Amino acid sequence: MLNANQPFASGFLWLASFSFLLIYGLPLTLVPLRWARWFQWALPVDLNAPENIHLHQLAEYFGRCTGTLAITITLFAMRAAGDPAAHPYVLEIIFVACLGMTLVHLYGAVRRIQPWTENAEILLYGAMTGLAAGAWSTLP
Fold first, then answer.
1. Rounded CA gap, 121 and 123, in Å?
2. Is the separation of the CB atoms in 105 and 118 below 8 Å?
3. Distance CA 80, CA 92 (A)
4. Which of 20, 95, 112, 133: CA 20 to 30 A from 127?
5. For residues 63 and 69, what is the distance between their CA atoms, to the nearest angstrom?
6. Measured between alpha carbons, how far is 95 from 102 in angstroms, rounded to an integer?
């Protein structure tokens, strides 16, 4: 439910948490390589070939780890959405995480080592950084 005392922060937390849970957290945790294909990452045709099996295992591992972190943050955001003023640290965590993700994606874009979908996420994470800062600033 939207908190009437902090509607911007509450709405941001609800919208961001459900969006990230559905687009990043669950797919990265459950089907990391399928998620990678959806986001246009080039993968070997046969990931189970002997020369690719360690790459496959590493990619699955990092995907599941990243997805689990995303799920954790989104669950805390959902908890905080009902009363953002009681959980201001959640907006601080989201701000720092999104700022870091903006920088990571900028680095990848400058080095030209990521697909265009990841370059587009620079705008997403930049906007999320600004929205998190704005929501955070509305708290008492």
1. 5
2. yes
3. 12
4. 112
5. 10
6. 10
pLDDT at 44 (0 to 100)? 83
State the burial class of residue 112 (Cβ atoms within 10 Å of its Cβ: 0-12, 13-18, 19+).
exposed
For residue 75, the tally of other CB atoms under 10 A from its CB is 13
- Tens digit of each residue's pLDDT (9 = 90 or more) over 49-72: 888 899 889 999 999 999 999 999
Q: Looking up tokens 């687009």, which residue turns up? A: 23
Sequence-ordered strand ranges (E) for 13-128:
none
The DSSP element (H or E) to which 17 belongs, if any, is: helix 7-20
Per-residue tokens: 59: 């990619």
Closest C-alpha to 92, from 107, 77, 106: 77
Cβ-based burial of 50 (10 A; exposed 0-12, middle 13-18, buried ≥19): exposed
> Encoding tokens for residue 98?
């999104």
Low-confidence ranges of the chain (pLDDT < 50): none
